[in-house]
Design goal:
Order of helices and strands: HEHEHEHEEEHEHHEHEHEEEHHHEH
Structural class: alpha/beta
Number of strands: 13
Number of helices: 13
Shape: globular
Radius of gyration: 22 Å
Strand content: 15-25%
């Protein structure tokens, strides 16, 4: 009787080099597959990024994405502590250590890059990005997200909605008694992106401090969670929120939530989630694949189709959620925050201490 032979394992199809990439990119793919994983520390909710992860793992079989969803400050502090614990050594290939950092706290990311925590990479996707979104081929902007005013439409039924910061400050003064405790903004001490936006506001002129005092008189609530703030506005628990990331609000509004979104006509700050490859990445080739995929047309389209419908930094995708589409929808007072050394001043220890002291004084009303 003939012995039964074991079935031969079917070889996995080898990934192809993306169109337009250099031919030797196949070697990066091969090495990444031997690394077997990429660890991403990020401040973007997992449910938003899951379609991106699924598509990446399907394109590059054998490479698992280890995704850590963290608050911006927790992300920063954890990475710095883990790097310090290594000393001069490099982490082992299977180490629980970040390969890629991806955060909305642009200034914290740029400080890490400036302090030598990132490695340089000449991404084949660089040509598809605006010049302001890349710094030293180390820091990479990946999204285009406005900071907006979000309000509950039922509270404003038949009433004037503010179109600028000065208009919002006047409205807060008028409604301070009935809106007491029903207005919200980021807690700048617990939210990296909240501090970034407030600090950028202060650079634009003294009007921000006039608004901060008005927020203080209205007994503004402070939060570190964009989703929590916008959902509480949508429920009617809160009346209005200032300087909130617009991507989630616009998506929720399109799904029928009773909220409105205002891009201030004096100027609308636009931030970008910044990514970089860790200098001590234990899986650097897999990190390059991940970064390139996030920046690619396919990756950007997947982000735009996510539950938060993140607006993409590229303008050559088929998505309706591009920077150009956003400018047409919200107006042309958009002011992108450049990925670069201009953000370092926000993290100067003395300046930050002075800013926070003035912020606390302003919120006293």
């Amino acid at each position: 009787m003939a012995a039964c032979l074991p079935a031969l394992a079917q070889p996995q199809p080898q990934p192809r080099v993306p169109p337009g990439y250099p031919g030797d990119y196949i070697e990066i793919i091969a090495r990444a597959q031997r690394e077997g994983a990429v660890a991403v520390y990020a401040s973007t909710d997992l449910e938003v990024v899951q379609p991106l992860i699924t598509a990446f793992e399907a394109r590059y079989p054998g490479i698992r994405v280890r995704y850590q969803d963290l608050n911006t400050l927790d992300l920063h502090n954890r990475f710095v502590a883990e790097t310090a614990s290594l000393g001069p050594a490099m982490p082992a290939r299977d180490a629980d250590y970040a390969d890629v950092l991806w955060s909305t706290a642009m200034d914290l990311q740029i400080k890490l890059v400036n302090d030598g925590y990132a490695q340089r990479y000449d991404s084949p996707e660089r040509g598809g990005l605006p010049s302001w979104a890349v710094w030293r081929d180390e820091a990479w902007g990946t999204t285009f997200e406005p900071a907006v005013i979000v309000y509950n439409r039922r509270h404003f039924h038949g009433a004037h909605v503010p179109g600028s910061r000065s208009g919002l400050a006047r409205l807060l003064q008028e409604h301070a008694p009935q809106w007491r405790g029903k207005v919200v903004t980021y807690d700048v001490e617990r939210s990296g992106v909240g501090y970034l936006l407030a600090q950028q506001d202060a650079r634009m002129g003294s009007e921000f401090w006039y608004l901060a005092q008005a927020l203080g008189r209205a007994k503004v609530q402070l939060s570190a969670s964009t989703a929590d703030m916008i959902e509480r506005i949508a429920s009617g628990e809160l009346v209005l929120g200032y300087n909130l990331l617009g991507s989630y609000a616009l998506s929720l509004m399109e799904r029928g939530a009773a909220i409105g979104v205002i891009a201030p006509r004096d100027y609308t700050l636009v931030m970008s989630r910044v990514a970089f490859i860790a200098r001590k990445s234990p899986r650097p080739h897999a990190a390059r694949l991940w970064l390139d995929f996030v920046l690619s047309r396919e990756g950007q389209a997947l982000l735009s189709q996510s539950s938060s419908q993140l607006y993409t930094i590229r303008t050559d995708t088929d998505s309706s959620h591009t920077a150009n589409a956003l400018a047409e929808r919200l107006g042309y007072a958009l002011k992108p925050i450049s990925v670069g050394p201009g953000l370092l001043a926000a993290q100067d220890a003395l300046r930050k201490k002075a800013f926070l002291a003035r912020w606390h004084d302003a919120l006293k009303g």
